[in-house]
Amino acid sequence: MEPRIDLMANETGARISKRFYNVSLAVQQSALSRTVQELVSLRVSQINGCGWCVDVHTKEAAAAGETAQRINLVAAWRESAVFTDAERAALALAEEGTRLADAHSGVSDATWAQVREHYDEDQTAALVTLVGLVNAANRFGVITHAAGGTYEPGMVAGLAG
């Protein structure tokens, strides 16, 4: 699969990408833990089939100290014993918020209640925003055929500006 366009090599694409990244900084700098951010980002990217984003989030999770076992089990988190109740609530929100077309009701009241049980207002705002941002980033990657495999931890941080 050949990339269709390198958005960072295009003037308009680079401006948009930098602004998109700067929006994501608010989530990164929130009280939502880095672990939850990477687990959620990885799960959303897996669902959407974005190779570039799966590459980014597996490597960033590992760089942040996440274990290989937990990274490998994100795709089967419901059938795994390695995630906390709070992480499970965040992963459920990530799945339901990503699979909107698959579930006419969107995010269930039960999932929302679990999220609110474990996360305060600011963390919830960051979590909801993260799910939306990662879904958008996945669309960029899938549409442009951005392939995974070449990412090095910290590369995305170079977009700030």
From TrEMBL:
Residues in Carboxymuconolactone decarboxylase-like domain copies: 26-96
InterPro entries assigned to the protein according to its UniProt record, in alphabetical order: AhpD-like, AhpD_core, CMD-like
Pfam families, A to Z: CMD (PF02627)
Molecular function terms from GO: peroxiredoxin activity
Superkingdom classification of source: Bacteria
Protein name: Carboxymuconolactone decarboxylase family protein
Organism phylogeny: Bacteria, Bacillati, Actinomycetota, Actinomycetes, Kitasatosporales
